Amino acid sequence: MSNHWPDLFGVTQFLEPSLVDAIVAELKSAPGSPATVYGSTGSGTIEQSARRTFRLRPSNEIVALVIQKLRGIKDAVERHFDVVLKECEEPQFLRYREGDFFVAHQDGNTGLIRLPTEERLISTVIFLSRESESPEDGAYSGGSLVFSRLRDRFRLSSEPGMLVAFRSETTHEVTPVTHGE
Question: Are the C-beta atoms of residues 97 and 177 closer than 8 Å to each other?
């Protein structure tokens, strides 16, 4: 991806199709709960006016596999962003259904609050579903990852297995899903 704003690092087939299919199949029956948001307190709260999505809990094997794959690109991410990364947080597996969203926010490294998540330098998103402009079986509409800065907005087009990484202080959102998940 480009060196211009937003500064993104991307890998189009970070997860191979068979692994994406296996993860999606497992997530269909994985337990979960409403995802939380963090503000001035260290304990996350459910704020459906800011974030409506489910955080799922796949098997330890799936989590370990994704972490292993993330560690495999650590050096490339560090070079791209000119940072030194300490560790990899446990990934969040999120299900966005029709009407779900996450308002514009930053994931960390802003200096505004003092939480462990504030130490996050780089955020990553791995897409597991296909995005479509219009409703189609097996795809979602809406639910776009959008980066914003003042009046500038950049909508990222996604595909299954694609990874995108960005500085955690970059403002981003997930627009409301209009079809699918």
Answer: yes
Say if residues 103 and 93 touch (Cβ distance below 8 Å).
Answer: no
Strands in 122-126's sheet, in edge-to-edge order, are 8-11, 163-167, 122-126
**Token pair for 115:** 């939480």
CA-nearest of 21, 30, 9 to 130 is: 21
Helices then strands, each counted (H, E), the chain:
3, 14
The answer, as to whether pTM is greater than 0.70, is yes
Residues 168/109, Cβ–Cβ less than 8 Å: yes
Distance CA 40, CA 149 (A): 23
Nearest CA among 177, 49, 33 for reference residue 105: 49
How far apart are alpha carbons 78 and 89 in whole angstroms?
Answer: 15
User: What is the 3-state secondary structure of 95-160?
Assistant: ECCCCCEEEEECCCCCCCCCCHHHHCCEEEEECCCEECCCCCCCEEEECCEEEEECCEEEEECCCC
- In the predicted model, residues of the chain with pLDDT beneath 70 are 1-3, 38-44, 110-118
